[in-house]
Sequence to fold (187 residues):
Amino acid sequence: SSSDYRPGKCQLLVVREDWEAKGGETKYGLCSSFLTFVRPGQFLVGHSTHSVMQIPEDTTAHIFMAGLGTGLAPFRAYVEQRKYQKDRGATVGNMTLFFGGRYSKTEYYYRDEFEAFEKEGIVKCCNAWSRDTPGKKVYVQHKIQEEQDDIWEHLGKPGSTGYFFLCGSKQPEKDVYKTLLGIMQSK
Fold:
């Protein structure tokens, strides 16, 4: 969350990690499991550090964000920060969010917030749900391809000043890179 937009608060997006180990036993992530059992009123001791992902200082720069699963969290903060800046009279640039998951009903975290931010013109949401439509898997790279003209305009064209951030699962990283490279090579 943005500390300007939500002063005095730190909000986390945690999804409990689980997997099947060899032998069929279900294993759970240590930190994500621990956090899922914390209840309101309980206190935790933690240490925050500055993120390596920093929103651009130029508030007018177009920001493209690809968030996969919990990789949505830093981009929620980016969108909140732009909203905060806009509300205080700053000129803010466009933001495009490519968010991917399997099912929109269960994995569209902060849906109401993002729909409100989109309605207000803060962000354009380009969501990819790989299991919502039987027989048709839609991934983030497909949504990126659909926005190729805008991406070229703000990232590839000489003099462009946009930014592209990717956060979340490393699995689609190569496909996202390949799609962006293809856009740059085709223009």
Remarks:
- Strands lie at 18-20, 26-28, 63-68, 95-101, 124-129, 163-168.
- Residues 73-87 form the longest helix (15 residues).
- The two ends are 36 Å apart (CA to CA).
